[in-house]
């Protein structure tokens, strides 16, 4: 898609992601998806996944729960849609995966976990619920409203689910690492690595700091406090990477994840790349094009058609309109 800045290219890309994944890649404040002056927003998509036709419809209203339909059937939530359709997005906001704090990388790994290992999709939220219950129980013990014995069931759940989540994240990072390093190298970022070292979690670990946890009213150990290291030549890219290096690292992550999805699902994901060529020189632009998944569909936005790209279709975007150029 091509067109001047501010005409709606990113909005169209965002709509493709909402229609295929059930959420925006740019914001979790869903009322912001509704146009100013309107009461609701709707995205409809039609296409094919693994040669099977599909239609989706996502309705967003600020005062009502989001509604997602696949082939006319109302789904319980976005997880069901993502089990059927796969899409990955690169937007400038995604740089937070590298330059943001640990919570951003944890959320990124947990979303990827659901895409690559569907049976474990609910593991992060299950751990989060058990953790919240244990923290609430810790605060009750602190103010004398409950006994330490009441903590034991929640401690057991946090330990079991936490160890499984920690192990799953480490497995995911290990699967992702070779592709990430290879793609980053091809895009000019040598010696790149992503590492999540499994530490595990046991009831004994939690018991060893119980007094501190009661004093603070929160669980001070577990995967909710962990981080993944994203480095290049031994440098932490969050602290010591340039904007260009951080951008390249995120691109390499998206490409590596796309490869894993294609291997596990037998179909490349839809790739949505927003303004991805604006900071790439011609050599890196050509390297990126060469690394796009074969047989899949990639949608790119740019103010002008990138020299490295020979698209099957160019869509010209003007305010309120998008048409084949």
Number of helices: 11
Second rung of CATH, namely the architecture of the domain at 98-249: Up-down Bundle
Instruction: Give the name of the CATH superfamily of the domain at 98-249.
Output: RecF/RecN/SMC, N-terminal domain
Q: What percent of residues adopt helix (DSSP H or I)?
A: 40-55%
Shape: globular
Reported for the largest beta sheet, the result is: 4 strands, antiparallel
Would you report the number of β strands? 12
CATH topology of the domain at 98-249: the name is: Glutathione S-transferase Yfyf (Class Pi), Chain A, domain 2
- State the end-to-end distance: 9 Å
Classification by helices and strands? alpha+beta
Helix/strand order: HEEEEHEHHHHEHHEEHHEHEEE
List low-confidence stretches.
none
Keywords:
three-stranded parallel sheet, 325 residues, 44% helix, Glutathione S-transferase Yfyf (Class Pi), Chain A, domain 2, alpha+beta, 18% strand, single chain
Describe the structure.
By secondary structure, the chain is an alpha+beta fold. The protein has a domain at about 100-250: Glutathione S-transferase Yfyf (Class Pi), Chain A, domain 2. The chain has 11 helices and 12 strands. The protein has a 4-stranded antiparallel sheet with strand order 1-2-3-4. Strands 5-9-10 form a 3-stranded parallel sheet, sandwiched between helices. Strands 6-7-8 form a 3-stranded antiparallel sheet. It is globular and about 70 Å long.
């Amino acid at each position: 898609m091509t067109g001047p800045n501010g005409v709606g290219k990113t909005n169209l890309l965002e709509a493709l992601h909402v229609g295929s994944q059930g959420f925006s890649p740019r914001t979790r404040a869903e009322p912001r998806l509704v146009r100013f002056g309107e009461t609701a927003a709707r995205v409809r998509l039609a296409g094919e996944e693994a040669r099977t036709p599909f239609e989706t419809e996502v309705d967003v209203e600020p005062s009502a729960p989001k509604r997602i339909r696949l082939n006319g059937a109302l789904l319980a939530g976005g997880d069901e849609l993502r089990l059927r359709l796969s899409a990955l997005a690169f937007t400038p906001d995604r740089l937070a995966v590298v330059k943001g704090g640990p919570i951003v990388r944890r959320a990124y790994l947990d979303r990827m976990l659901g895409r690559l290992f569907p049976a474990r999709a609910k593991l992060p939220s299950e751990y989060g619920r058990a953790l919240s219950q244990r923290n609430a129980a810790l605060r009750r013990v602190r103010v004398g409203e409950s006994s330490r014995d009441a903590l034991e069931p929640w401690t057991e759940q946090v330990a079991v689910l936490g160890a499984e989540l920690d192990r799953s994240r480490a497995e995911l990072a290990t699967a992702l690492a070779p592709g990430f390093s290879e793609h980053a190298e091809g895009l000019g970022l040598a010696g790149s690595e992503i590492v999540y070292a499994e530490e595990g979690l046991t009831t004994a670990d939690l018991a060893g700091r119980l007094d501190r946890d009661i004093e603070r009213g929160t669980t001070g150990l577990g995967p909710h406090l962990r981080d993944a290291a994203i480095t290049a030549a031994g440098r932490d890219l969050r602290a010591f990477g340039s904007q260009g290096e951080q951008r390249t690292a995120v691109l390499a992550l998206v490409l590596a994840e796309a490869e894993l999805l294609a291997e596990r699902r037998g179909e490349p994901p839809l790739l949505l790349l927003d303004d991805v060529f604006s900071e790439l020189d011609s050599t890196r632009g050509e390297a990126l094009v060469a690394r796009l998944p074969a047989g899949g569909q990639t949608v790119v936005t740019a103010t002008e058609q990138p020299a490295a790209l020979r698209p099957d279709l160019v869509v010209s975007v003007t305010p309120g309109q998008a048409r084949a150029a």
